[in-house]
Design brief:
Layout: H1 10-22, E1 39-41, E2 44-46, E3 52-55, H2 58-61, H3 70-80, H4 94-106, E4 113-118, H5 121-136, E5 140-144, H6 153-158, E6 176-179, E7 199-201, E8 204-206, H7 208-221, E9 227-232, H8 248-259, E10 262-266, H9 280-283, E11 290-293, E12 304-309, H10 310-313, H11 335-373, E13 377-383, E14 386-391, H12 412-422, E15 425-426, E16 428-430, E17 434-437, H13 445-466
Parallel strand pairs: 3-15, 5-6, 5-9, 9-10, 10-11
Antiparallel strand pairs: 1-2, 2-3, 4-12, 7-8, 11-12, 13-14, 14-17, 16-17
Helix pairs in contact: 3-11, 4-11, 11-13, 12-13
The chain binds pyridoxal-5'-phosphate.
Pyridoxal-5'-phosphate binds next to α5.
């Protein structure tokens, strides 16, 4: 098909050229999204050449309160005048403690909790990984195919998404075993849900993917009593915005209980209102032992939180008591990030989670209508404002579109991202052939529908070019 990559305006071109001369080329810069940002407000981004874009990406699901929310700026400014840094691992200040208390109120589970504050999603997983090994004194860890957990060695070792994220970095951390995630649209066992349920485990209908963990992994590869933790995304993000069936998380929780394994839920992308509830785990009625939180927590300022049962993280437990200094961070729990985190939670609580559910439902309905009109839309899925659309060549066979659609190596994701960009809409790809919608949670119905209108225009053009 004929497709021309976006051409940047004059000022953007100059900036991009300067960027090329200084930035690490492993960054995921894309020719299809040559977005330079002068400023951003609410759900709108403005580039250096005066173009305006509707933002359906929120900086990878970070800017939940929208760009530069007035109350966020005020909270940051007030804290900036009092204290910018002192090191949260070593000293005491109020914003860190208050944020912890607020997080304990909104994370699933009424049990006693403790928190470790870091600076990024990957750091939150590093902490969870260390806690689970330290507390259980067990070596092995279960993770899932299709998962994404970040770029550090723990993150990479847990990740099972794209080879580019792991190639040439081995040896990775040993003892991580990847098992099947219920990607029901393309079942890894070629079965269909719910017919794949043939048994039950601890009274819960046993879907076949989890049966594979019990029947194959735990029988032939790994003794469950050697397993410290199970790391899982309750909705897979980078892997394709995949929502598992309702039995999946409760089954993992039951497995963890049975063998004394720690269930660690990575809610870095799905947490804090993104799915229309505080956490995606809430949709499944599961109270994880440890929950990893980052992205939206401080509306764009860096911070992450690893919230876990007090028994794993306190210093009062028998011979596994934590030795001071065995974990920590200079910047973790930065006072300004914490102050903004408190404000972010307040904004989510008062309005934004409800908006995420309402606008998310509306967008999903509209996307499902679009699916009826456009054959290349194979699947529409998601919860709240965490929505994904998967593209296919053939809806019946689910055959994927070729990776080289334009004769220059562009796949469907890149072509959609680039075409939307040229019409003033920012969307991001995920999985092998999906587009994700993760706008700021403040998005209005009008903005959402305007963005979807642009998206549909692009789909129409692509279908025409492909001869559908
Ligand atoms: C589910 C999930 N876990 C972990 C990470 C890593 O977070 P960070 O890039 O802040 O280290 C991401 C980032 O996209 C993510 O989506």
């Amino acid at each position: 098909m004929k497709y021309n990559s976006p051409i940047s305006g004059k000022r953007s071109k100059i900036l991009i050229k300067r960027d090329k001369n200084v930035m690490f080329s492993a960054n995921t810069r894309s020719n299809e999204l040559p977005l330079t940002v002068k400023n951003a407000k609410g759900c709108k981004i403005y580039d250096l050449d005066g173009n305006e874009y509707i933002d359906f990406g929120a900086g990878y699901a970070v800017c939940a309160t929208g760009h530069c929310h007035e109350e966020v700026i005020k909270a940051a400014y007030e804290q900036l005048q009092k204290l910018i840094h002192i090191s949260g691992s070593d000293f005491y200040y109020e914003s860190q403690i208050t944020l912890a208390e607020r997080l304990f109120n909104v994370t699933p589970g009424k049990f006693n909790k403790r928190v470790y504050f870091g600076n990024s999603g990957a750091e939150s997983l590093e902490a969870a990984f260390k806690i689970s090994r330290y507390y259980t004194r067990r070596p092995r860890v279960i993770s899932f195919i299709g998962s994404f957990h970040g770029r550090t060695f723990v993150g990479m070792s847990l990740t099972g998404s794209k080879m580019v994220q792991k190639s040439h970095f081995s040896p990775l951390i040993p003892e991580v075993i990847h098992t099947l995630y219920p990607y029901c649209y393309r079942c890894p066992l070629n079965l269909t849900y719910p017919e794949c349920i043939r048994d039950e485990f601890e009274g819960i209908p046993l879907i076949s993917c989890v049966n594979y963990l019990l029947d194959t992994v735990f029988e032939q590869l790994c003794d469950p009593l050697d397993v410290a933790s199970i790391f899982v995304e309750p909705v897979q993000g980078e892997g394709g915005y995949i929502v598992p069936p309702k039995e999946f998380l409760p089954l993992l929780a039951a497995i963890a209980r049975k063998w004394g394994i720690i269930l660690i839920v990575d809610e870095i992308q799905s947490g804090l209102g993104r799915t229309g509830r505080w956490f995606a785990s809430d949709h499944f009625g599961v109270e994880p032992d440890i929950i990893c939180i980052a992205k939206a927590l401080a509306s764009g300022l860096p911070i992450s939180a690893t919230v876990g049962r007090a028994e794993f993280m306190d210093n009062s437990v028998d011979d596994r008591a934590w030795i001071k200094g065995s974990h920590g961070s200079t910047f973790g729990g930065n006072p300004v990030s914490c102050a903004v985190g408190i404000k972010t939670i307040e904004l989510l609580e008062t309005k934004l989670i409800k908006n995420s559910e309402e606008v998310g439902n509306l967008m999903k309905e509209r996307l499902q209508d679009m699916q009826k009109r456009h054959k290349i839309i194979g699947d529409v899925r998601g919860l709240g404002l965490m929505l994904g659309v998967e593209f296919v060549k053939d809806r019946e066979t689910k055959e994927m579109l070729p990776l080289d659609l334009d004769g220059h190596g562009k796949d469907i994701k890149q072509i959609i991202m680039g075409s939307c960009f040229q019409k003033g809409l920012i969307v991001l790809g995920c999985g092998r052939n999906s587009i994700r919608f993760s706008p700021p949670l403040i998005i209005t119905k009008e903005e959402a529908l305007k963005g979807l209108q642009i998206f549909e225009e692009v789909i129409k053009e692509i279908e025409t070019a492909l001869g559908f």
